[in-house]
Amino acid sequence: MIVILLGPPGAGKGTQAQKIQTAHGLVQLSTGDMLRAAVAAGTEVGKKAKDFMEAGKLVTDEIVVGIIADRIEEDDCKQGFLLDGFPRTAQQAEALDNMLNHKNLNLDAVIEMKVDDEALVDRITGRYTCANCNQGYHEVNLKPKVDGVCDNCGSTNFNRRADDNRETVSSRLESYHAQTAPLLPYYETKGVLKTIDGMADIDGVTSQINDVLGSLA
Ligand code: AMP
User: Is 194 labeled as catalytic in the residue annotation?
Assistant: First the structure.
């Protein structure tokens, strides 16, 4: 199964992808995670992407298309994958269509997570992750069971993303509305778009996604 999670920054794509990937045997492919790893490792891709990311701007299509094209050739993607944060522009969507056609694969669903813009700022500025296992948390909506200790691995070290601040959020939302939202009619025409209510609580969103994936299986 090949599925895209589409929604604005802070809609919960990463949180949901982590929760559903194991249950459905899909590999989460997050271009944001891959780019952050490249920046941290100081690779050529990371050096090119860093300034765009810190300013809340999209990195070039060429870079992200190259990353995804390489990644879907790996063995673990044979069982299916869940795209989180890709595609984000018309050129990326076309490049993905070409890659899938070339491999004789079909896109099964594009799940739009619909969230009000006003909710996104609080979601983004309050979120952080475990520095060891990358489990996501939020200051208000999703605290660890024991304060300061990761539920998943017990680590006491946490990270915040450099771009999760008020200044870059508005730029990231602008990019979403100008460049990514126009993909919704594109996928609707293809008959693969499924829209869910991303304002529901985390488990409520997961259950809507499970319903969509269940209807495809
Ligand atoms: P995310 O973790 O998906 O919010 O992505 C973080 C940042 O990485 C974005 O604000 C962009 O700068 C960059 N990025 C991630 N995915 C893409 C993409 N598909 N196209 C362009 N830039 C991307």
Answer: no
Q: Which amino acid is at 21?
A: Q
The sign one gets for the Cα dihedral 150, 133, 58, 201 is negative
Q: Is 43 helix (H, G, I), strand (E, B) or coil?
A: coil
- Kindly give the distance from the C-alpha atom of residue 16 to the centroid of ligand 1, in angstroms, as a whole number: 17
Range of lowest pLDDT (7-11, 98-102, 164-168): 164-168
Annotation marks residue 166 as catalytic: no
- Asked whether the bond before 182 is cis by omega within 30 degrees of 0, the reply is no
**Quick one: tokens of 168?**
């870059």
CB 120 within 8 A of CB 173: yes
Q: What is the pLDDT of residue 31?
A: 97
| Residues 92 and 61: beta-carbon distance below 8 Å | yes
- pLDDT over 90 for what percent of the chain? 89
Neighbouring-strand partners of residue 4: 83, 110
pLDDT bracket for residue 205 (50, 70, 90): very high
Q: Which residues line ligand 1 (CB under 6 A)?
A: 9, 31-32, 35, 52-53, 56-59, 64, 85-86, 88, 92, 163, 172
Quick one: which atom of ligand 1 is closest to the CA of 52? 12
* Band of residue 25 on the pLDDT scale cut at 50, 70, 90: confident
For the CA of 60, the nearest atom of ligand 1: 21
